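Chapter summary example.
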Amino acid sequence: MSVVTRIAPSPTGDPHVGTAYIGLFNFTLARQSGGTFILRIEDTDRGRYVADSETRIFRMMQWLGLTPDQSPLQGGPNGPYRQSERFNLYGDYARQLVASGHAYYAFETPEELTTLREAAQAGGHVIDVPSRDLDPQAAQARVDAGEAAVIRLKVPRDGETVVNDTLRDPIHFQNREIDDKVLLKADGFPTYHLANVVDDRLMGVTHVVRAEEWITSTPIHILLYRAFGWPEPVWAHMPLLRNADKSKISKRKNPTSVEWYQQQGFLPEAMLNFLATMGWTHPDGREIFDLAEFERVFRLEDVTLGGPVFSLDKLRWYNGKYLREVLSEDDVARRLHAFLQGQKSELPLDDYFRAVTRLMTPRMEVFSEFLEKTGYFWSEEYAVNEKAQAAIDGAQDLLPELAARLKNLPTFDADSIKAMFHAYAEEKGLKLGKVMPPVRAAVAGTMESPDLPELLATLGQERVVSRLAGAAP
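The structure predicted for these 473 residues follows.
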């Protein structure tokens, strides 16, 4: 069977890491079988619609490399791929359910519904909608006469609906506990339930892989599939991403916008690798693997349901591993330079930039840390922190001598500089811990910097000597 999967985000705000997470698993499942991955925009909730959100979703998917086979951008044989462009379609299917007796017109006013809900809550049962018992012909006549009505699903009173989820034991829902959901609003707009099922069917979706928060909606969707006489897709509800305290991930406790991670300089490969471990473990225990490897070994049934923790620290660790162990030095430099250009930096991509990047790669996790840690490489107007100033003040007798020694080195490379420090320390009867830190403080303004001989070699002889001379009285 050729697998067809989809994600169907709503354009209601920032592109969410949850969409990327679910998108990764749907993309991979489709790719494994040579199937189809669809990106559909569910934009019928006009009250929450954000104009530029759709474009930002497309950009997120492009950044991650999760390119859909069918979408509003690419089109496809089952379009359009925006629900707002399929508006008339849903009404036809809703009325089809009315005609078959699986749905009904409901005329209750908002005030009447409020009273009915209060009564249902007090009685401990689902809302009892009076319109359900109207004669279908009489209800149709009222609609034909122009009376406002919604269309509701007519849930069976007896029996149960069972959700057979690939990742769980069968989940049983008693039909008496499922209320008659609105399928089509009085303004003609569909609700999520109707539009979702109709679109999945018409787009040939075979596997519905989505977050577990949709489990309670699934019996409604199953009832709709049955009412239409359509076969159910395969259901798989992925565990929700969690904060460290196991609460559902939210922007109050974790950045949830993928754009934030882009702006911080995270790598898309690291993000995908990290997301792949949310509820799934590589069979060989590997932590670092690319998208192709994930596609090779992933099995949907191996997903676990323990509530994966979306740890920013762990994601930073992944990103650092990619910078230091996966990408080449040249790739890191090129990507960093492109990132900085996006931040309006005008640093040239030259040998000096590459050398600084090579020095700093072990000392950064994300690209946004680069400029804040390297100011002394680009300007003589760099800050000197309190600890560094104390080191400078305590070595006023050493700095002029060290400046002179460094100035007279015939070859200003890391090995020669290192040898000079050792020779000077031995000559003066000092430990290197007394000799090198003041130099670091003077040339960088901080005690936290890369390997000192390499740092000095990168800065260059003239600049180093000048800074040491300037730090001495």
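To summarize the output: The chain is about 45% helix and 10% strand.
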